[in-house]
Amino acid sequence: MRGFQPYIAHSLEQSRQLGHLPPLDLLLLDLDLPDGNGLDLLDDPAMPAHEHAVIVTGSPTVESAIQAVSRPVYDYLLKPLCPAQFDALLAQSAAAHARAQDGTSQHGMVGGCEAMQQVYRDIERVATSNVSVLVCGDSGTGKELVARALHARSGRRGAFVAVNAGAVSPELLASHLFGHERGSFTGANYRHAGYFEQANGGTLFLDEITEMTPALQVYLLRVLEAGTLTRVGGSEPIGIDVRIVAATNRDPLVAMEAGALREDLYYRLADYTMCLPPLRERGDDVVLLARHFLEQLNFRHGTGRRLADGSERVLLRHAWPGNVRELRSAIQRAYLASDGQQVRVWPAQRRMRPALDDADSVIFTVGTSYAEIEREMLARTLARFDNDRTRAAQALGVSVRTIHNQLARLKRSTEAR
Q1: Which of 14, 72, 93, 211 is least surrounded, with the fewest CB atoms within 10 Å of its CB?
Q2: From CA 301, how far away is CA 299, in angstroms rounded?
Q3: How far apart are CA 146 and CA 109, in angstroms?
Q4: Can you spell out the DSSP letters for 35-47?
Q5: Which CATH number fits domain 111-275: 3.40.190.10, 3.40.50.1000, 3.40.50.300, 3.10.150.10?
Q6: What is the third-level CATH fold of 279-343?
Q7: 129-169 pLDDT per residue, tens
Q8: Which positions ≥6 away from 243 have C-beta within 8 Å?
């Protein structure tokens, strides 16, 4: 059907015997197999590489749905599949295969511009090595997709574990990363294995690495250098074998200058650096991605909608400050608002920042350090908004946590003088 060659396995063990096959365009996984859970195959290096994985189950549970969402799973479907669903699924895979053949789709990412071709080459170049990789790029450009691709191609037998350092409070991040012993602090009622132990033998993705406190950066560096860690409240060193992929949406050199990233940690994380281009610099990729997201929605809802005339011109004119994440949201919003077969895309109008009058203008002379510029702009912006950190963060285009971290660094710097 549609030119596909099917391969069938009735158990985990039989599935692992298919490792000699070339990369698969589509992997259908049942959750209830005689010898285990089909989700276990997603991180199994004995399995052939695959472009899309789809869960198909007759016994859906909230737990399995949550597990699927946290993994690189294309969709979660219920048995029995009707013929139209199955045909739509094959059509999606055929379209993805065609993009892969013309070089516009690889590793679960879509893009044919030269910058994305370089990203694909970088993934193939370093995936099988054990070097740490630092992925730089604006928010929404796909840094976690790169990390997952590196893990999938690495051959490492352990799990892929992702943690956003900016989404966990500094007081709890150490426990989350390195684990803790029972009774080590209030509320520690049991021993906890942290993300490093969970990723042992696999890959740990550390997103927003510049949001980690300097003290925690020191301990992270020690763990990476020694290959061992000690749980919070513990005394016994635990050996680990973890490949690190870190990411930041800031220029790492500027972050070092501002004190947000330790220089020694940077050099330990950046054995190899990859830079993801913003969507506004990717040319026609915006149209490829829009069609890709629309294909996914058509499959999920059993429809055959297409972009309305003129939508591609609108897509190409928009700057997409939210990058691929913003584009995905715009396509979904347009799809839901559409009553017919044509989907007309109108990017959301972004709220303009308050205009600054002459009194708010700041001029810096050549030679002013990044740290001084950052400190001055932070102080003036907070003053402009009556010390409202939320509004200041919105005006500066950063998170409120970043504002808190910068103020804490400035305080420490002042006290050290």
Answers
A1: 14
A2: 6
A3: 8
A4: TEEGGGGGG-TTS
A5: 3.40.50.300
A6: Helicase, Ruva Protein; domain 3 (1.10.8)
A7: 999 999 999 999 999 999 999 998 888 888 899 999 988 88
A8: 130, 132, 150, 151, 154, 156, 202, 203, 204
**Strand 238-239 relative to strand 243-248, pairing:** unpaired
Could you tell me the residue ranges of all domains in the chain? 12-101, 111-275, 279-343, 358-416
Contact 154, 127 (CB under 8 A): yes
For residues 374 and 102, what is the distance between their CA atoms, to the nearest angstrom?
44
Query: Which residues 6+ apart lie within 8 Å of 321 measured at CB?
Result: 280, 350
- Residue range 207-232: average pLDDT? 92
Residue 268 CA to its chain's centroid (Å): 21
DSSP3 helix / strand / coil % (the chain, rounded to 5)? 45, 15, 40
- What is the full DSSP assignment across 249-316? SS-HHHHHHTTSS-HHHHHHHTTEEEEPPPGGGSTTHHHHHHHHHHHHHHHHHT---EEPTTHHHHHH
Domain 358-416, CATH 1.10.10.60 — does that match?
Answer: yes
Of 258, 264, 263, nearest in space to 222 by CA: 264
Helices and strands per DSSP (H, E), number in the chain:
16, 16
Q: Each residue of 61-111: pLDDT tens digit?
A: 777 776 666 666 667 778 877 777 777 777 777 766 665 555 565 777 899
pTM for this structure? 0.66
Domain 12-101 has CATH 3.40.50.300: no
Backbone angles phi, psi at 201, to 5 degrees: 85, 0
* Position 354 confidence tier, pLDDT thresholds 50, 70, 90: very low
Sign of CA dihedral 226, 230, 236, 241: negative
Kindly state the helix (H) or strand (E) to which residue 76 belongs, with its residue range.
strand 75-78
Q: What is the DSSP letter of 248?
A: E
CA 379/CA 389 separation, integer angstroms:
11
Residue 358 has pLDDT above 60, yes or no: no
Q: Which residues pair with 76 in a beta bridge?
A: 55
